[in-house]
Amino acid sequence: MAQLQALIFDVDGTLADTERDGHRVAFNQAFAEAGLDWEWTVDGYRSLLEVAGGKERIRFYRERYTPDWYPTEDLFTWSAALHQAKTRYYRELLVQGKIPLRPGVRRLIQEARAAGLRLAIATTSAIENVIPLLEVTLGPESPQWFEVIAAGDMVPAKKPAPDVYLHVLEAMKLLPQTCLAIEDSYQGLQAALQANLTTVVTVNPYTQQHDFSQASLVVDCLGEPDKPFQVLMGGTYQATWFDLEVANALLEVAAKGA
Ligand code: XBP
Ligand code: MG
């Protein structure tokens, strides 16, 4: 039987609800600074999230909604500069402590560290966003707890491509059968599944309608002893919060089904 050796976390929507009050707000601040009259609303941002990656999302939006408008620079230089401003604003929001961890995230990470499990991050977001989020929420030394932080443009293709997860597995020299991925979106789930990872999904308001039928477990959050999770799909073996026992049980079931 494959024993759990590592947890691989997605960031946006999984570690913290970063999108609505973080990334989205920062994009709008960057647009205003650049003199663009674009406004990404709370609702409108839902469909924009289908485009993974901030630079990609900016270029997609221009092409879809202002196809006759072109920046003076080429599109890649322009979107990279706009994205840099967005990253600056996003980091400001993070440092202000406006984006807390989701329920159960700190507890599960602590439990995993105490059990000697290995930890990694697999995200589409830029590394400049990930490090301050970890530092502000889990403490200044916490980025070192993660053996690999695979982020942003480190791999050729962003989620739903599996590249970022394959990169983590390769860097850690681990078989997917010994790892568990934690995701929040359809695109993230597809990326993890294509890397053959057993995946738990914690939904959020932007992703709760996504198709998660291929996940091993779908819950509203990881839960806490005094704040049970709500199970949306899958079995939890009487558990009311997600812990390493549930994680191991899910791997065992996946191994039997393989
Ligand atoms: C989510 C994303 C990101 C963020 C924006 O990534 O799609 O693009 O919305 O981040 P994940 P950047 O769920 O994989 O963490 O602006 O840095 O791209
Ligand atoms: Mg996500």
TrEMBL record:
Keywords: Hydrolase. The keyword Secreted does not apply. It comes from the Bacteria. Pfam families: Hydrolase (PF00702). SUPFAM superfamilies: HAD-like. Transmembrane segments: none annotated. GO terms for molecular function: hydrolase activity. The keyword ATP-binding does not apply. NCBIfam families: HAD-SF-IA-v3 (TIGR01509). This is HAD family hydrolase. It comes from Oscillatoriales cyanobacterium SpSt-418.
